[in-house]
Structure formats: structure tokens, C-alpha cells
Amino acid sequence: MTTQTARTPGPAGGPTTGAAATRSAARPRKRGAVDRAPWILVSPFLALFLLTFILPILVAIVQSFTKVTRAGLFGEEGVTSTFAWFENYRLVLEDGNFVASIWRMLLFGIVQVPVMIVAATVLALLLESASARWPGFFRATFFLPYGIPGVIATILWSFLYVPGLSPIIDVSEMLFGYTPDFLGAGTVLWSIANIVTWTYAGYNMLIIVAQLKAIPSELYEAARVDGAGPWRTATSIQLPLIRPALVLTTVFSIIGTLQLFAEPQLLKSVSPAIDSQYTPNLSAYTTAFAYNDYNLAAAQSVLIALVAFALSFLFLRLTNRSSR
Amino acid sequence: MGLAGGAAAALAGCATPGTTSVNTQPVVPAAAAGEKITLTYWAWLKDLQKVADIWNAKNPNVQVEVSWIPGGNDGGYQKMYSALAAGGGPDLGQVEMRSIPEFMLVNGLVDLRRYGIDEHADRFDETLWSQVGFADGVYGIPQDSGPVGMYYRPDLYEQAGVPVPTTWTQWAEVAPAIRELGVFIDAFALDDASIFGGHAMQAGATWLRSTDDGWVIDMADEITLDVARFFDKAIDDDLVTTSANPFSPGWYAAAADDKIASLVQASWGDALLESVSGAEGKWRVAPAPRWEHGYGSSFIGGSTAAVLANSKHPKEAMEFAVWMTTSPEGVDAMIEHSGIGWSPARDYIGAAREEPSEFFGGQRYNTEVFQPATQQQNPDWQWWPITQQTFNILGDGFRGKATGGTLVDAVVAAEQRTIEVFRQKGLTIRKADR
């Protein structure tokens, strides 16, 4: 030990104090370097993470508690920013349209998320079943819609929804004499659900397929030995074992539902039923960038985040409890 | 430490943007003689650079660069607001007439009277000029606009055996005969209240006025309510379609299928109408139907070239904008390259617009209909700091029509809501005495 420290080239200092000084300093310095290394390595990530993620969130929270008051016709007689406590939150919660948009998204999620997860699960099970033909081809095909950006997908679908352009409406009129209204006040939500399901079912399917592939083949063999058919294998082996994937995709979908934006924003131009506050995110976007009220928009955004957080947490709690 | 310090500084720098005014600071001096400067102009007009190039060739020291942005609230304003909030942005920005007060609210515009705009005032249409002036200042140079007329299909009116209406009363009388052919006389946009605003403007309403002691709102006045009742009835009687807004894909499909007999719209609708497939030669233009009171026409749409707050060369930017919007070469170039709406120049509508139109069957519709329409405008109309929000509130209310509401209720509610939003912002507003 002593020889080691003695050999350690000390810093420029007197030889008398050098040994004692290096002895106490060497160890922490070495450990210090080891301690620092991970921080140095993650610092590029951390810097970006702080600047582009944490900081904007903090700014949004600060802004949501700020109120700007203007005097005169346009604020030419003075503009003051004050701490507003929960004034912005009160205004947001009093805004019937914003609250309605959150309820609308809950209704949307209660219907669309289960439909999509069931569809994704069924597709995944079919692809992974022993009798599947060309699973690679179909997996790619089912996944393909996810490769089309949401904006393009919505434009494509809007041409199938607009009367006068839509072949679906034409065929329905010809065969059944019935004119479906895809863009009416009561139906457009489900037309959006259809686009979202179409886009994301394949993506969720892929996550489930990955989990299915991770099931050890011994389990299948054991099931087969026990005389389990494909149905029994699915319900007793595969479904219980892909539970984590189902939980994961459901949580993602719940968060995604509350963040619905591109589809209604684009369908707005063809459907008079979609207003400027149709979804919570559309509401926040309009408030911030069309009305220039960043403070109110910040309060709306914080509330959206809180609701998404609460719902995801609730869902995880429920699934955890039932698994115990 | 450095990071945390930077974060704290950034946080401190994040005061709500747009809370200081450029118009209380000293006037920016003109560029020195011989100094070469470059102006930037953000606009959504197409090929505007070609117009600027004409100016650039003649003004080697003041070069103008145009950047294309998405139209207004489709992203262009968002971009400008963000740039202003960050302390930057172009010298000039395309800002709609109705959005000028909104930009003023974030202190985004330069008062051009401080740079001598008054000497150019008589080059512009009077009504449009009155719409860019607020609180003793001038905040934008009118660039294009849209006097309203009525586009119509003579063949469909003939088929229905009814005359082309000159009043709204007559319009309502002939509409059922047209409906019997399976054709709508027009479309009513439930979600775009700006057209309804145009009707009210024509009927003589003035929704908001700026006075010395704050804003005065008179949105739910009898005139506007009458207009609302009129269209409530037209929608209830199924005379107009509400499912296809003018110039939406559904509307184009219906128009191409001969299901739309007429369209009360601004002059810039002509270019859009030309993209209806197979429409060549089928349409004509007539003056807009009149209400029993009010004016012969209204302005729908219209934009300005506004000098934005962070411009380093406001005076030169203003001079370029005046040249572009009022000189014959500027106007002609903007019509040819950018397809602008109606020119705001007082004495010059553009050489191309004096010619007979092939699309409208040889009609000289610009000189026949739209030029007189600019002389029959509501001079009192003013835009207000939350125009877009009021229109959205109104549009959101109008959508209720599909589920049993009425336009009248929506107007009354929108007035109330507009007052609330004004007060939330701290602005003074009161209801007009009526």
C-alpha cells in the first residue's frame, strides 16, 4: 500500500507532505474518475434530455401559473405578468368544450383501444399459429399501414369518407340505397377511430409477435403432448404469456389516445363536425398558436399530461392487482 | 453546475413573449446611402420572389428575399408568432387584415406612421385603409382583398325557370325552385364563420369598435340576428348544403356534378372556381344579393404586408411593400405570378383584370361587378384582437345547428364569450347600448 502510494507521482509539492497528501488524495481521485465516467458518457444524452424535455416541461408549468394582463385597446398602455395561482386551471376547467374533449377522448379510448388490441392480438396469434401460410409476407402487410405517416393516412382515408368522391358511399348507395355519413357529428369520431386502428393495429401486433416468439418451444411441445389443440394452446399458453406485451401496448394506446391530433386536425377541412377543440391536444394547439394564449395553453397541456399519467397509472395498478 | 446555471438562465428568459412594445422605442433610422441591405418577407403567396426580383433589379441596395410560409392559421402565423417570441423573424410578414389586431396584441407590428406611411395613404382603397389603422397608428400595408359578388350558373337558373336574385329576399324565394332540381342554391359553411361575418358586414353590422375608453361590442345586434335568422331558415328549409363548405373536396365534387347553382363569395373565388372540373364557360358573375339595409358588398379575406416588430429596416420594408401593392408593375406582377386577390390600389385593378374572361364566357366581370363592389362597402367595420377566436367560437356554436341548435343562439353566446375572453386578457370591453 505504502509503496504504491509512494510511487504515485505526486503533484508538485514538498516531498515531506507529498506522501501523506497523495495517500489521502489518490484513492478518492481514482474512485472519482470511476464515478465520473458514467456521467461523462451519458452527458450528451442528459444535456439534450434536460434542454428538450425537462426544461420545456418546467417552463410549461411555470407558464401555466402565470397570467398576462394588458391595459388599453391592445395592451399599448402596459402589459403585466403576474403569478396567477390556479386561475388558468380554473378557466380551463370552466371551459366546457375542453372538458368535453377529454370525455370524448375517454369514450374514444374505451371503444378504440380494446378493439385495436384485440385485433392486434388475433392477427399476432394467427401469424404465429402452426398452420399459418407465408407469415412473413402477412406480417409485413399488416405492419405496412404504420409505415404511412398519419397525415398521409388521414388524407387517403378522407377521400374514402367525402361524399361525391368516396367509392364506398357510391357502392353503398348502389347496392343498398343507403348513404352512409362518415363525417357527421355522431360518426366522425368513429371514422377517426377507424384510421387510428388501421394505422396502429399492425404496430401493436408486431410487439405481441415479438413476445410470442419469446415463448420457449418446450411449452408448446408439452401442451401438444398433453393433447392441447390450437385453441387451447392460445388461451392457456400464449395469452397468459403475452400479458406483459398486452399491458405495454394498452398503456401506449391510452397515452396515444389522449394525444390524438393529426387525424382530427386534417379531417377538420372535410368535416364540419370537428371543431377547434375537438381533442385536448387540438384545444391546446389552438389556444397557443391561434389565440396566442400560451399561459392557458400551458395549463391545458399540464392537465392533459396529468390525465394521461393518471389513466396509465390506474391501468397498471388494475392489471398488477389482478395478476397477484 | 453549468447546465443547472444555463437552465436557470433559460427559465428566467422565458417570460411570456410579446410583452414589450417596439413602438415605444426610438425610430430605427433608414439605411445609410450606399449601404446594401437585405429584407426578408415571409408570405404564402406563390412565386412572390418573382415579384420581388423586379424590385431587386431596380434597387440594388435594398434586396428582398421572400420565404414561403403556410397560409395564416395553417402554420404561417404560428411560425411568425414563434419567431417574434424568440426575438427574431422577418422584416415583413403576410398578415390577414383580420389578424392585424392579434399581432398587435403580442406587440408584433411596427406602427408605420412613425415611418411616414401617411404620404402614401391616398394610393390605397379607403375601406381597406381604414381596416389597417388602429389607435392612431397604421399597422399593415393592404396587399390583397376580396370584394364579394355572386358567382352563378345561368343554365341551372334557366332550367329552374327563376331569375338570378338581386336581393336576399329574392334569393330565398327562388331557392326552392332550384332545390326541386336536386340542386343547392349555395353552401353554408357551419365551421367557417368568416363568411357569415361578411354577410353581417354587408347588412350594416359593426361587431366591434375601438373607442377611447375601450372596445364596444355589438355582435348580437338586430342586424346580425336578422342575418342569423335568415340562414337558420335557409338551412331548416334545406335550401343550402351544410355538409360541403365552399372549396372543400366535397364542394368541388358537387359543383362538378352540377349540384351547386350559385356561390356568394369574394373576388378571389374566381381562381378557385376555375379548378372545378369541366366548369369552363358555365359560370357568370353578378353583384351580391342585397339586404334591405346596409351595403352592396363586403370584403371577405384580404391580407397585408406588415412590418414585424424585430425588423432592422422598417422604413425600407415599408417602401418595398408600398411599391409592391400600388405600383402598376407591382400589381401586375402579383396578379401574374402570385394570383393575388383584389388589388388594394385605389386607381389600378391590374391590366389583366380589365380583359374579358374566357372562363366566365367572355364576361368582363372584374370591371362589371367587383370594381363597383369595392365602392359599396361598410366603412365602419373594424377587426379586433381576438378575431380568430371569435370566429372559432361562432363556428363551434354554428356546428350545434347539426344537432338542434340555432345560428341565433350561437351569435348571442359568441358575443358573451368574446366579452369574457377580452376581460380575461385585461382588455376593456362593454356592450353597446341598444
TrEMBL record, chain A:
InterPro entries: MetI-like, MetI-like_sf, UgpAE/MalFG_permease. It is found in: Cell membrane. The chain crosses the membrane at residues 39-62, 102-126, 138-162, 182-203, 241-262, 297-316. Keywords: Cell membrane, Membrane, Transmembrane, Transmembrane helix, Transport. It is a multi-pass membrane protein. Residues 1-10 have a biased composition (Low complexity). Residues 102-315 form the ABC transmembrane type-1 domain. CDD domains: TM_PBP2. Residues 1-29 are annotated as: Disordered. The keyword Cell cycle does not apply. The keyword Cell membrane applies. Belongs to the binding-protein-dependent transport system permease family. This is Sugar ABC transporter permease. It comes from Isoptericola cucumis.
Automatic annotation (TrEMBL), chain B:
Keywords: Cell membrane, Lipoprotein, Membrane, Palmitate, Signal. Gene3D superfamilies: Periplasmic binding protein-like II (3.40.190.10). InterPro entries: Bact_solute-bd_prot1, SBP. This is Sugar ABC transporter substrate-binding protein. The lineage of its organism: Bacteria, Bacillati, Actinomycetota, Actinomycetes, Micrococcales.
